[in-house]
Every structure is written in structure tokens, then in C-alpha cells.
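quick one before i forget lol
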Amino acid sequence: MPKTVIWAGVGVALAGGILVATAPLALNAWWAPNTTEWLSAIGVLEIVVAIARTVLAPLGAALIAGGLVMVYIDRRLRGDGISDRPRRWRFPPPQDA
């Protein structure tokens, strides 16, 4: 599962980076807003692409970080020796004054 999350994060981050780099040029190259209807359509599409450009790169980074945390926790919980197991913090004994 962690490898899947990490690779999904890499894919989402790359898609976000490609979208940031190419979306404005692609929208202007593919659609010429020469009528009012096309101008409205390109306006809506630019809003959708702007939201996707804003969300995809941080989402990819968060997925990669989450996958790395899962790998770390899996390694800690899978430890064979007593020294490899997670350590629990306990309150110190009360000090009599």
C-alpha cells in the first residue's frame, strides 16, 4: 500500500506540474474565443484548470509524504527484536518534595 500511495503522489505531482506549465498555452492554442459562447466556455475551463493547478501539486506532495510515513510505521511495527519495537513514553514517577 505505501508504494502505491507514493507512486500515486508522484503521478499527481507530475500531472500538476505539467498542467501548470502547459495549461495556459494549450487553452489559447486549442480554442480561439471568437464568439460569446466560446468565451464563456473558456472562462469556465480556465477556472477549472486554475483550481486543478492549485490543488494537484500540493496533493501529490502530501501523498508522497503520507506514503513515506506509512513505510516508516510499517518498519517500526514489523521489528523482530525487542529493540526494534516502538517505544512507549511513560510519565515519570512522582517526585516527593
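fyi The chain has a mean pLDDT of 81.
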